[in-house]
Design goal:
single chain; 12 helices; 44% helix; binds protoporphyrin IX containing FE; oxidoreductase activity, acting on paired donors, with incorporation or reduction of molecular oxygen
């Protein structure tokens, strides 16, 4: 990708649209004397963004849609907030995101109940230290079970219930200062992509919830079971049908994030056979699979 972009730039193609890669390559070429951005650093930065930033956010959006479908009341409140701030004759823009407190509470609640990296990343103390009366020897491999902490009944009322309202008073934030709620970790190794995760999550979820109602395939039930690993995923990928709800169908063509019409052919190449076979060809235009969609969208945002 980098070679291709450099070749295009050398030939004077693509000068108009400045994407992240072009900006980074320009910084590299300018060779700032104090803080040079070498090709190795540039590649490491892009790798961090792709490896750390795509799956975690996509899985969180997928859990969010599943929880929202499970709680129609939350969906109604979200859509009401979006209809007031964005309007049904408009599509979500990045500028709306700061005006959506209920959506923000939904994001915090999803990150509480389904933290994307449930044991954080392994930490290793450089000196022997004592935590809560326990000695942690220098060089130990420490896993912190943030998943269990964020479901601790002595801290959280009805901890297994998905209830975004608990975050509406802004008492909790995820800056890492409160060790009862820290889905992005804490301290010097706290997630480097919080600002990007916030924007990607809020923008994708706002667009998906504002533009569509969601329902399950005929005869399917919603499964919220988690699958543990370094990353927390849904055990069964979410399969859901989006039903357009905006006032004007042309809005779906102009949406910069969705670009449903462009992504559409790509998506259908990914659809597993057994799901594909449930749908008649004529109905295809009305069905998209949200889990695939969310994953593609999250990747699209990072790559744009
Ligand atoms: C919902 C989305 C995300 C969640 C829940 C999340 C969570 C985390 C967690 C728990 C850690 C380990 C922190 C610790 O052990 O104390 C981490 C590290 C990291 N994250 Fe994220 N992350 C998300 C999205 C992103 C995005 C979008 C990016 C980049 C664009 C990113 C880049 C990183 C990097 C580079 C680290 C390593 C930081 C270091 O070790 O110094 N993350 N993330």
């Amino acid at each position: 990708m980098i070679d291709q972009r450099q070749k295009l730039d050398r030939n004077g193609v693509g000068q108009e649209s400045k994407d992240v890669l072009q900006v980074l390559l320009k910084l590299k070429d300018e060779a700032d004397a104090k803080m040079p951005l070498t090709m190795i650093k540039l590649k490491a930065l892009l790798m961090d963004m792709v490896v750390g930033g795509t799956g975690s956010t996509a899985n969180t959006v997928e859990f969010a849609i599943a929880e929202i479908m499970h709680k129609p009341d939350v969906l109604r409140k979200l859509q009401l907030e979006l209809d007031i701030v964005v309007g049904k004759d408009n599509i979500v823009e990045e500028s709306h995101i700061q005006q959506l407190p209920y959506l923000y509470a939904v994001m915090k609640e999803v990150l509480r109940i389904h933290p994307a990296i449930p044991l954080l990343v392994p930490h290793c103390p450089s000196e022997t230290c004592s935590v809560g009366g326990y000695v942690v020897p220098k060089g130990s491999c420490v896993f912190i079970n943030v998943w269990a902490i964020q479901r601790d009944a002595s801290i959280w009322k009805n901890p297994t219930e998905f209830r975004p309202e608990r975050f509406l008073d802004n008492k909790w934030d995820y800056s890492g200062n409160d060790l009862n709620y820290f889905p992005f970790g804490s301290g010097r190794r706290i997630c480097a992509g919080i600002a990007m995760a916030e924007r990607m999550f809020m923008y994708s979820l706002a667009s998906l919830i504002h533009s569509f109602d969601w329902k399950l395939l005929e005869g399917e039930t919603l499964d919220l079971t988690e699958k543990f690993g370094i990353a927390l995923k849904k055990k069964m990928p979410l399969v859901a049908i989006p039903i357009p709800r905006l006032s004007n169908p042309t809005l779906y063509e102009s949406c910069s994030i969705c670009r449903f019409s462009l992504l559409y052919d790509e998506l259908w190449k990914w659809v597993p056979f057994e799901i594909d076979s449930k749908l008649s060809i004529s109905k295809r235009n009305h069905y998209l699979l949200s889990s695939l969609l969310v994953k593609v969208l999250s990747k699209t945002i990072v790559m744009c």
